[in-house]
Amino acid sequence: MSRQIEQRANQIKGQLEEHDYRYYVLDDPRITDREYDELMQELKQIEEQYPEYRDLHSPTQRVGGAPRAGFVTVNHPVPLLSLDNAFDEHSLRQWQQRISKLTNGTLTYVVELKIDGLSVALTYDAGRLSVGATRGDGTVGEDITANIKTIPAIPLKLRKPIQQLVARGEVYMPQEAFLKLNEEREAAGEALFANPRNAAAGSLRQLDPKIAAKRNLQVFVYDLLVLRGEELTMHEEALEFLRNMGLPVNPHRKICDSIEEAIEYCHSWTSRRNQLSYDIDGLVIKVNSLQAREELGRTAKSPRWAIAYKFPAEQKPTTIKDIFLRVGRTGVLTPTALLDPVHLAGTTVTKATLHNEDFIISKDIRVGDKVIVQKAGDIIPEVVQVLTEKRAGNEQEFIFPEYCPECGAKVIREEGEAAVRCQGGLACAAQVREGIIHFTSRNAMDIEGLGPKMVEQLLNSGLIKTLADLYYLTKEDLLGLDRMGEKSADNLLEAIERSKENDLYQLVFAMGVRHVGLGASKSISMHFKNLAAISKATEEELTAVEDIGPKMAKSIISFFAEDQNQAVMRRLMEAGVNQAKAVSERIRDLEGITFVVTGTFPGYGRKEAQALIEERGGKVSSGVSKKTDYVLYGEEAGSKLEKANRLGISTIEVGDLQQVLDDCANRG
Ligand code: IVH
Questions:
Q1: Domain 504-574, what fold?
Q2: E strands, 234-314, where?
């Protein structure tokens, strides 16, 4: 009897593996989802009754185990290098000429899509998945095996038990899954992910695999790092091999006999990229012959045999339907254009920032104008050009109002400033709301579950008036809110409670003193060691601190002179919010490393990025030279990045700045 059961269990396992392969790799399923689920159910039942037939690689075991306390690091068997970037055809031709001189014979290339996700290394021993790791700094990554196993497209067993295989690939989140996830998060009042890449990265770094399992992650593999037990000669062959082993390989690629053909293929994707259900940020051109690759070798951080062609920012025409003003936490009125919805780089865009009054005047932007928009950073589109020749004559100029649209107080534009500001202060509901949203945000008090929606709900229901009131909320208060259950109420109260233990600098930053960013908050906290001392400091004492100029000092003094702010501070203290714990001194782990920072980074101003580097002992210089160790670049990086590439200096694209700096510190 038990032999029959074992046979049946093995039969189902084999069938499920085969179906996974057909579905995820061949894109040619042969059974319905329902039939698949029934097989899975049957196997689960057998395993429950006879646990001896359950093993770690059973299809039922994708989500298992308890959440862990932290990630363990793993050493990669071969470094996971990054790619040099080219932003135009010229750089691609230059690359081709450079490498042609270093090899004999003509080169052919494989051009692949550059998937915008998270790089991972998958290790299979004797055909079984043993480790899934993040790229980390390229040498050492994090062990995320438990999360990797939850991705159904990643086989737990290869189709042949080869001795050892390590594949590199990209885990990504399809656009649809990303939109759905953000919708759910918005409804729950949680912070939204800026793009599918961040969402994928955030999901893989969850300590509880049950969360990753719900995130609809996918994978494409594109490189063989280690292969024991087989010999291959071409990259194209390696891709086929990976696919035959049961790993998903992206179907879109082309073997090109010349760089011109490769360039043409790259261009062909500029318009086609929108038809994909996932984001790509360019293409990768790779030398096909593995022997030539060996000869070409690598520079410090990237192979010479491959180069990434990055897409230029996508632009589209649309119409400005209206212009409205958003009042920020410091009272600044930011004009935003409401657009005719337009599909841009994978998402539907309905708004674009117009920055300030001068921007509108200099570009002569009017309501009704046809304009060209582009995505500048990750999510915020902007107007690049007005198509004045398309004007009908009924477009309307936008005049800044004299009074705040939210509270009716007078607005003022100070001498030498671009910003127009509401003078309503704490009497302006918008400023209060934005101030509290800032207070709870990630770099500030980091209160999970207290996103913009929730803050708004708490204000509207009268449960809070100032940010200090957050610490006096009770469970009964919360249970009276829309769609708030016991569990969410408990979670929220717990998150609020936890934030009482935050570092002093988080509180200082969270208070939202004008001109005081994250870097300055850290410097001040490190110097004065408690909030009371900061609130009593004189201008002279403040400017004696590194990074604090007279403008910031004045702003700090006038902030603490305000009775209302004093009252908030007192109530925070009475609630037990830490106002004294000295900020843990950061190790000066970037000492001796020179950086150049170029382009714009999500979430950080250039100055903030610089402060962060310097605080950790690193040096920031303005020009790229041979002495530069790393060029950190963001969106719209230009000549500095090109120069760095020319000089062979390591360039790093910044997604998460802290993470990048940690990597640099580890590498030295
Ligand atoms: S090859 C050493 N191929 O792009 C060569 N990379 O900016 C290894 N990426 O870190 C990279 N799609 O995470 C390669 N088809 C593809 C890729 C790809 C996405 C990522 C990869 C890498 C980053 C470099």
A1: DNA polymerase; domain 1 (1.10.150)
A2: 253-256, 280-287, 306-310
pLDDT in tens, 446-465: 999 999 999 999 999 999 99
Half-sphere exposure of 47 (CA within 13 A, CB side): 19
Q: Which of 134, 249, 278, 284 should be mutated for ligand 1, with most atoms under 8 A from CB?
A: 284
The set of protein residues with a Cβ atom below 6 angstroms from ligand 1 is 81-83, 112, 114-115, 119, 170, 222-223, 284, 303, 306, 308
Residues 555-574 have a mean pLDDT of 92
Q: Give distance in angstroms: CA of 84 to centre of ligand 1.
A: 10
Cα 582 to ligand 1 centroid, rounded to whole Å: 42
Q: Looking at the domain covering 85-310, what would its CATH class be?
A: alpha beta
User: Mean pLDDT across the chain, nearest whole number?
Assistant: 89
375 or 318, which is more confident:
318
pLDDT tens digits, one per residue of 218-239: 999 999 999 988 889 999 999 9
Which residue among 122, 168, 170 is best mutated to probe the pocket of ligand 1, counting the most ligand atoms within 8 A of its Cβ? 170
Query: Terminal CA-to-CA distance of the chain, rounded, Å?
Result: 62
Query: Which residue among the candidates 13, 44, 101, 114 is catalytic per the annotation?
Result: 114
Task: Tell me: pLDDT of 376 over 70.
Answer: no
Q: Which CATH class is domain 2-61?
A: mainly alpha
Fold of 428-499: DNA polymerase; domain 1 (1.10.150)
**Best residue for ligand 1 mutational test, from 76, 78, 81, 83 (most atoms within 8 Å of Cβ):** 83
DSSP per-residue string spanning 544-571: TSTT--HHHHHHHHHHHHSHHHHHHHHH
Where does the chain hold its CATH 3.30.470.30 domain(s)? 85-310
pLDDT above 70: residue 69? no
Residue 157 annotated among the catalytic residues of the structure: no
Superfamily of domain 594-667: BRCT domain (3.40.50.10190)
Domain with CATH 2.40.50.140 in the chain: 315-412
- Residue 171: phi and psi, rounded to 5, are -90, 135
For the CA of 303, the closest atom of ligand 1 is 2
Residue 563 vs residue 380, higher pLDDT: 563
Matching residue, tokens 């070798």: 297
Supply angle C-alpha 441, 335, 356, rounded to 5: 95
CA torsion sign for 323, 324, 326, 331 is: positive
The contacts of residue 299 (CB under 8 Å, 6+ apart) are 84, 648
Place of tokens 């304009």: 371
Domain 315-412 has CATH 3.40.47.10: no
